[in-house]
Structure to design on (377 residues):
């Protein structure tokens, strides 16, 4: 507080402040220093390329959704390329089957998991009936279903299965990596899973994937 | 003052981080609290494959309940967490892990924060390198020189 007068603000002397051309100062049409036309083209192309890439991605995604080849909730299938897990399940009316019997059958098979409480399974039923009519063997496993309910379901909606088994506790299905019903596996004559589909088979998937694959495996 | 107590308590209740557990049937839980805590910790790192954005501990889906029970059976058998995770990954793939391992398929996932920092540093670096060096301060004018001299003299004198 020695020299109060010196602390009094006085008008700042005018100084040369370097002025940078800001983005808002560009004159339309005038070339901005440091911004070549190539650079501008590149900048303009960013949104165009983004929209094109996203559009292409969405197109294939929607097409796959419609065809049933893309499932956004899909879970990877580690079982593909491996032998089926060991299991032995009781039957629905009679029989039941085990992994040993699948190996002993020594032929390509379709294994389908279903349940009487599962609505998509009912939608899938006609597709499975169509596959059966073509002589494709389908072995069915009822997942978390009581024997009377599964039995009633098969007699009401038709039985597309050559053999049936029941996994009421759902423990064997976990070994298959099952996440719900319906799910379908195609296995070759060695008992190795070659294809897995979580969700109902559509008529298109049946003709485009299941039938040709079974034909090829049977050769 | 009193009126604020109830809403305050409710707010505390809402803000408290409550671990979501979907165990509906207490008999599901292991008797040994230590093992049960281990099962819960492990289960909260496992994805419910039906709801997909919940852990099996938080989900009430049938499959989540089955896998919860499976995890507890394996713990009672004396298996390590590693063994149990390997068992489930063999069936459902790494997708079942909410905390995926670092491997070639997840390098991009785990590396994305580093990539973001590197990209940001790159942008800042380029900007700083391009910025013209600050202009040297303008020389002092007559009045400023006088004032400086006076200040220095005052300082030396006082």
């Amino acid at each position: 507080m020695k020299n109060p007068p010196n602390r009094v603000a006085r008008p700042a002397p005018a100084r040369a402040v370097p002025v940078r051309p800001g983005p808002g100062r560009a004159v339309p049409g005038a070339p901005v220093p440091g911004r070549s036309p190539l650079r501008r083209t590149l900048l303009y192309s960013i949104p165009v390329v983004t929209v094109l890439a996203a559009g292409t991605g969405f197109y294939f995604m929607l097409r796959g959704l419609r065809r049933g080849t893309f499932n956004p909730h899909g879970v990877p299938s580690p079982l593909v390329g491996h032998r089926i897990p060991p299991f032995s399940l009781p039957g629905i009316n009679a029989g039941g089957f085990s992994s040993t019997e699948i190996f002993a059958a020594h032929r390509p098979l379709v294994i389908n998991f279903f349940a009487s409480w599962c609505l998509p399974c009912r939608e899938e039923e006609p597709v499975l009936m169509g596959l059966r009519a073509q002589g494709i063997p389908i072995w069915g496993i009822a997942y978390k279903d009581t024997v009377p309910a599964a039995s009633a379901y098969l007699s009401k909606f038709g039985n597309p299965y050559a053999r049936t088994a029941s996994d009421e506790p759902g423990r064997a299905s976990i070994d298959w990596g099952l996440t719900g019903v319906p799910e379908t596996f195609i296995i070759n004559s060695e008992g190795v899973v070659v294809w897995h589909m979580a969700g109902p088979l559509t008529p298109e998937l049946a003709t485009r994937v299941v039938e040709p694959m079974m034909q090829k495996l049977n050769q | 003052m009193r009126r604020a107590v109830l809403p305050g308590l409710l707010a505390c209740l809402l803000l408290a981080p409550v671990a979501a557990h979907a165990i509906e049937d207490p008999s599901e839980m292991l008797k040994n609290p230590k093992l049960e805590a281990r099962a819960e910790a492990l289960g909260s790192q496992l994805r419910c494959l039906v709801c997909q954005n919940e852990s099996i501990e938080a989900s009430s889906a049938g499959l989540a309940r089955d896998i919860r029970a499976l995890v507890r059976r394996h713990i009672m058998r004396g298996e390590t967490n590693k063994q149990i995770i390997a068992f489930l990954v063999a069936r459902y793939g790494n997708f079942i892990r909410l905390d995926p391992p670092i491997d070639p398929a997840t390098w991009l996932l785990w590396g994305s924060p580093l990539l973001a920092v590197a990209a940001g540093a790159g942008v800042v670096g380029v900007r700083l390198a391009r910025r013209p060096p600050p202009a040297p301060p303008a020389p002092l004018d007559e009045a400023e020189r006088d004032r400086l001299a006076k200040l220095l003299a005052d300082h030396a004198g006082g």
Observations:
- The two ends of chain B are 59 Å apart (CA to CA).
- Residues 17-96 of chain B form a domain with the Helicase, Ruva Protein; domain 3 fold (CATH 1.10.8.640).
- Residues 28 and 69 of chain B are 7 Å apart (CA to CA).
- Chain B touches chain A through 28 residues (CB under 8 Å).
